[in-house]
Amino acid sequence: MSSCGLAMALPPRLLETATVAERRALAHAMLEDVLRALTAALPGAVWVVTTDPEVVDLARARGASCLPEGANRGHTEAVAVGQRTACARGAARFLTVPGDVPCVTAAEIHAVTQALGAETGVVFVPSVSGFGTNAAFLAPPDVMPLKFGEPSFDNHLDAARQRGLTPKVLALPGLGLDVDAPEDLTRLLASGTVTRSAQLLRAWGFPGRLSSHRPGP
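The chain above was modelled as a monomer; its predicted structure follows.
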């Protein structure tokens, strides 16, 4: 069983240069890109935790199921909902991936889910900055709690070791790129050439719109 949480927050500089409709469209495009990889790698096992009815419709149209939340309580609690549901449904393993990693591929998802073999343990994928955690794979799903927000990567490693686990770390370029800073948009445009997200950004005039809104000295 896998869960994918949608991250709606976008880079501050993009907030200055894009309309509300564009920002929402990009968030949905990123989720579509993530779901494309997840449903190809894990057909029938992908769940989206969200409070947004539009996201529910989008996820179901892309072959995912949904775990609607009554209120938006943040990434950590959304993942906890997925973990609890995985345990309640008897899942042996649990993967969580955020909704803002549009360059992720099915091959990377396979690499994460196959990293443990039949072992009990944890696998973490760091963000490109090295501070965030862009994927966590747990066997079993309740082997440890997860808490997000930088520096979650180091915190997760420490928490795993405190429980007697030896965490495995995979540095994956697509899964590692979460779009939450202006430079991430440049990386997305360079790396995610076939993604829906990059197509939208180019149609809107990026990266030129970023450079035209750089603050003066």
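The longest helix spans residues 20-41.
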